Amino acid sequence: MGIDNWVVINKKGLFRNGVLLVAGHLTPEQVYSELKCNYPKFYKMDKLCKWAFVATECLLGDSINTETDKNKIGVMLSTSHGCLDVDKRYADAAIPSPSLFVYTLPNIMLGEIGIRHGFKGEQVCTVNERFDASELYFATTVMLETKHMDACLTGWVDVSEEGADICMFWVSPAGDNFKPGLLAELYHK
Question: Which pTM does this prediction carry?
């Protein structure tokens, strides 16, 4: 199994395959604009979904083979804070809006990515205290080998008051560089 592409978004900026694309502290709206995306539903999403969306757009670009069976593309994402900002707004609202309720579960980011790209394979969202390369490796390996997925979008998408902390990978059965140690190394770059 191999990492075909990877993206990191943190306080330093936006990186794709180790190359700095945009420097500095960013908002998801800035990245959306920079990538010249056109997806009106973006503006209705919560912060977690927006960040997962723009990271996926940057990661994938035009790299998905149009012949790839979208039923065989898995998504495995982890987070720590999940959608805590929406949960707080939902709890504080006198009469909570249904538009807030939709985003009170972190796995909604999987659905938004799946809808945008037509991915219909296995989807898993875990909540962890911190980035866990071994868990990402294990879950992605299970998807590719046991569930017979042709590719997997995997990684860490966390949003807190401190900003975005994102590291995502596009993994396919080809190659041999998909290892927990490399995942951790790329996350910490």
Answer: 0.90
**Phi, psi (deg, nearest 5) at residue 98:** -60, -30
Residue-wise burial string across 122-137, b where 16 or more C-beta atoms lie within 10 A, e elsewhere: bbbbeeeeebbbebbb
Largest CA distance in the chain: 53
pLDDT (average), residues 164-188: 95
Residue 93 CB contacts under 8 Å (≥ 6 apart), including other chains: 100
Q: Which residue has the tokens 């991915």?
A: 119
> The tokens 């804070």 sit on which residue?
81
Query: Is the pLDDT at 43 greater than 70, yes or no?
Result: yes
- CATH code of the domain containing 116: 3.40.47.10
Domain with 38, as residue range(s), is 2-187
Residue-level pLDDT at 81: 72
Look at residue 158 in the predicted model and tell me its pLDDT.
94
Q: How confident is the model at residue 104 (pLDDT cuts 50, 70, 90)?
A: low
* CA distances from residue 168 to 49, 55, 57, 91, 126 in whole angstroms, order as listed: 14, 7, 11, 30, 14
Q: Is 70 helix (H, G, I), strand (E, B) or coil?
A: helix
- Count of domains observed in the chain: 1
Beta-bridge partners for 15: 8, 20
For 60, the enclosing helix (H) or strand (E) is helix 47-60
